Amino acid sequence: MAERNYTRQLATIISIDAVGFSRLMGIDDELAVAAFEERRDIIAGSCGAFGGRTFGDAGDSIMAEFGNPIEALRAAFDFQARIAALNAAVAEDMRMPFRAGINTGDVIVREGRLYGDDVNIAARLQELAPHDGVAISATTWHHVKDKTAAVFTDLGEFSLKNIALPVRVLIAGRGGNGPATPASFASIPAAPGHYKPVPKGPPAIAVLPFQGNGSEPDVGYMADGIAEDIIYGLSNTRWLSVIAKGSSFQFRDDSLGTRLIGNALGARYIVSGTLARHDRHIRLNASLTDTSNGRLVWSQRFDRDLVDIFRLRDQVGSEIVSILDKEVDRAEQARTFQVPWESLETWQLVRRGRWHMNRRTRRDTDIALDFFDRAYRDDPNSSAVLNELAWWYFWRAWLRFGDSDD
Q1: Whole domain around residue 377: which residue ranges?
Q2: pLDDT by residue (tens digit) across 349-386?
Q3: Within 13 Å of residue 261, how many CA atoms lie on the same side as its CB?
């Protein structure tokens, strides 16, 4: 038996990456390298001060090891604050922020380097962190949640590349020792395919707090009020599952991006908007986004004169709710046609049936039913086929009042 030349231990790993390093190299490679080395020294100093060590530098990435997750998080906050201060003194297009991912678990140690899935998870978490921010796993969070002043935004579970099981991801902010939330949430990269599936059942919709633009102090309150009215109106549609204000409004100052917010809230659709006021006029921009693919479903601008704030809220809120009700219904109908087909033949039968249905003659309607019946026999579990058959019988009953057997 070969002699084992490694050890196993529990450790907390930080994966750290320079954001925009390649872009800066293209502008001035010598300046970029000097900036990276200066920030690398800051990271090494912070890690050492909190009982950790750096190892395994590779290009613009740095790894660090800690024996304690609390100290690892403190070190991350420390070097992020120092780097942010350094960047503040540099022209915006020449700044080099870093993002960090922290995970705790079992690692293999060999010749000073760490290996294993838990090291890889830290690297994947780093990819989900905002610029100047810190993403941590639930494993790390369980160790630090009650022992620091940090605040956490739960993004939910992610399927990470080359990691067998889903990982729950949280964004960590300094809390009482600094900004309540990490900076630059808009910089969290979109990672197609990394999101947990939106639960099946009635489509869930979340209304984010609308952003007030302008110096007038009442704009923010007005924006909140309109968003609250939309939540109330949507909750009365009954067929939609509406995320509570207490959950959706936690993203007030965070531009995570609709796909990440949808993942965190379990919402299929996100409503967002901005409100601006000029004298006695307001302009509201509202939009509806499908969180499963980031596609903009609907957007519209509303210009109104500000005469009676409560009447304005009622009018605009009711109008938006009415539009959203129709747009979500239309999007859900379209979704039924996007289900993967088991066979090309079934798809062709349905397409041919739809063509005849759209001709709206008695003969074509009968031909359409024949195609839909053949498609049903080919794939009886297809929701799209069942939808077409249901629509055919509804249409027949509407025109001919149907038989009781129908």
Answers
A1: 344-400
A2: 887 888 888 777 888 888 989 999 998 888 887 877 88
A3: 28
